[in-house]
Amino acid sequence: MTAALIGTNISYLILTFLPTIAWLLFYLREDGHPEPKRLLLLAFIGGIVSAILAVIVELLLIGQEGIFAGSFNLAKNAYMFFLVIGLVEEYIKYLPVKFLILRRPDFDEPIDAMIYMMTVAMGFAALENALFIFPLFHQDIFTGLEVVINRFLGANLLHVLSSGIVGFFLARAFFSPRRHHFIALGVLLAATLHAAFNYLILIKGVIPQGTFYLILLLSTMAVVVFMDFERLKKKSVI
Predict the structure, then answer these.
(1) Is residue 152 a contact partner of residue 208, using CB atoms and an 8 Å limit?
(2) Distance CA 30, CA 28 (A)
(3) Looking at residue 194, what DSSP letter applies?
(4) Of 32, 102, 175, 191, which cross-links 86 as Cys (Cβ 3.0–4.6 Å)?
(5) CA distance 190 to 177
(6) What is the pLDDT of residues 134-188, one digit of tens each?
(7) DSSP label at 59?
(8) Taken in order 150, 190, 58, 10, is the CA torsion positive or negative?
(9) Residue 115 backbone dihedrals phi, psi, to 5 degrees
(10) 21-40 burial string, b = 16+ CB within 10 Å, else e?
(11) What is the CA radius of gyration of the chain?
């Protein structure tokens, strides 16, 4: 009985990680010079840790007892509330790359910035999936699977695309003496798009064509990130 329960829980946990791994493999296969697996794993684990840190910071800032609980209240100003979340999450997703990857000798091509940022994002999204979806599997496996699919096409894709944008600006920073300005701009842009996505999720049921706007936002981001990815791949060709 215990072994069966453990096996079931492990199966559910694997299902929560599958969407992020699928997106990660999709982008990694576009890299002409594959990164060391140990660094990719380090970045993925860094993303998981960064998700935990983001939850703590968000609770401290905008939780019920948070520092800015009254200022950035969801009921008062939903977009600003989501913008704070976006800024926290996009910056914290950058930290594992900054502290664990940037100074490594294997970080030697512009495209590496996007690869590692996206890998961190997938680790971040994987833990989010587990926190959101794992309890649902115990209530109703079909509801859990439905949420897995929705997050695969929504929140997980958002995380990889927004981090891809930060990664592009991070790559550009290496070619500019004002590198910190580029990184800050990338985080701000990614956070703004992140907030727009969350806000549209909140109001999609009360505005005409709400789902269309969500698809349009993600599609536009995907095209931009793909174009940036291709530009950096050309710079990386020796």
Answers:
(1) no
(2) 5
(3) H
(4) 191
(5) 22
(6) 555 556 654 555 555 566 567 888 999 999 999 999 998 876 666 778 899 999 9
(7) H
(8) positive
(9) -60, -50
(10) eebbeebeeebeeebeeebb
(11) 18
Q: Tell me if 169 sits within 8 A of 182, measured CB to CB.
A: yes
Q: How far apart are CA 97 and CA 167, in angstroms?
A: 9
Which tokens go with 139? 């209530």
Residue with tokens 């939903």: 78
Q: Give the tokens for residue 6.
A: 């453990």
**Tokens (6 digits) for 169:** 């600006």
Q: Are 114 and 230 in contact (CB under 8 A)?
A: no
Distance CA 221, CA 79 (A): 19
Structural contact between residues 163 and 190, judged by C-beta atoms closer than 8 angstroms: yes
Q: Name every residue whose Cβ is closer than 8 Å to that of residue 118 and which is 6 or more positions away in sequence.
A: 23, 24, 27, 160, 163, 164, 167
Q: Are 46 and 120 in contact (CB under 8 A)?
A: yes
Residue type, 207: I
pTM of the model: 0.85
pLDDT for 195-207, tens place per residue?
A: 999 999 888 878 8
The residue behind tokens 């926290």 is 88
Q: At 144, list the tokens.
A: 């859990």
